[in-house]
Amino acid sequence: MSDNVPSPSPNQGPKPPRSGVITSAAYCNGIRVADVPVPDLGDAWRYSDRFLWVGLYEPSERLLSHIQEAFGLHDLAIEDAHHAHQRPKLEVYDDSMFIVLRTARLSDEGEHRIEFGETHIFLGSRYVITVRHGSLQSHVGLRARCEATPQMLARGEGFVLYSLMDFIVDQYFPVIHSLETELDELEEEIFSGKFIRSITSRLYHLRRDLLSLKQAIAPLKDVSLQLSRMNSSLIPPDSRPYFQDIHDHVLQIVEHIDNLQQLSHNALDANFALISVSQNDDTKRLAAWAAIIAVPTLIAGLYGMNFEFMPETQWKYGYPFAMLLMFGISGGLWRWFRKVGWL
After folding, report:
1. Which of 85, 153, 181, 233 could make an S-S bridge to 30, C-beta 3.0–4.6 Å?
2. Is residue 279 a part of any domain in this protein?
3. In the beta sheet, which residues pair with residue 23?
4. How high is the mean pLDDT in each 10-residue block of the chain (343 residues)?
5. 240: burial class by Cβ within 10 Å (0-12, 13-18, 19+)?
6. Phi and psi of 315, rounded to 5°?
7. Residue 93 belongs to a domain with what CATH number?
């Protein structure tokens, strides 16, 4: 049995097991040798030399209490794992660690929206316990991939922790690539000359997604750096360079997010600037046409007063003269506004 959950029916997301237990397995020399029932976990850990890897999904308080009693986990870590909504962090207790990671993946619902989750990891001598909150898809295939390399899995808890962190961190890259593609499309639309009202809204949601991503991944810089330099039997010396590799990936992701945030900010400013220029051009056009129309309106208004001594009453060319004057001045204004770029 792998870490995968049985496939649901079409158009449905993966359904977590009602018991909250995904997998509870024992390993010997990197080989999976048995599935251990939850009530037997304590005895299996204390009275054998096998390595235990337990996967839980949104467990109940009762189940977590049983896991705490079986492995002697700290009260504060159990409380955090039950309530979730934690920021990424690393807490070291006497003989165990508690690590919180944030998962991110593109949601199947909506365009380029991100689905966040949490993975809490209890790490101790010969055991790893993962508690997941949110999407199960963020871990599909992980256990099978680890079991495919028994020589690495034989290293125990240090290798499993590295595999979990590496698997989760790598999932940020396709999310960032998707947001980068969306930003490129928005930039093309901004500079196409077609000012679409939805662009501002899309840029806002993009910047919000980038901020959420950074809040989820940035704390891992300190966590991965601590693990790469930690002097603990849980993280043997030959495993520490792997956490340095994770640290490098996290720095790369954070730097990429910073660049996208700056580019999105510039795109938003450019969008506002181009909208302002467009509105200014429209104002100029309206002012130019108002000036052109004002000339015949003024002349027609004067000639419409019907005083006795007016050209049209005594001069047979008065009407053609008035029309020619209107068209002449208006035409001159039109040519001048075209020359200065108002029309």
Report:
1. 153
2. yes
3. 55
4. 38 47 90 92 90 92 92 91 86 91 81 82 94 78 88 89 93 93 89 76 90 93 91 85 94 95 89 71 70 70 61 63 72 73 65
5. middle
6. -115, 125
7. 3.30.460.20
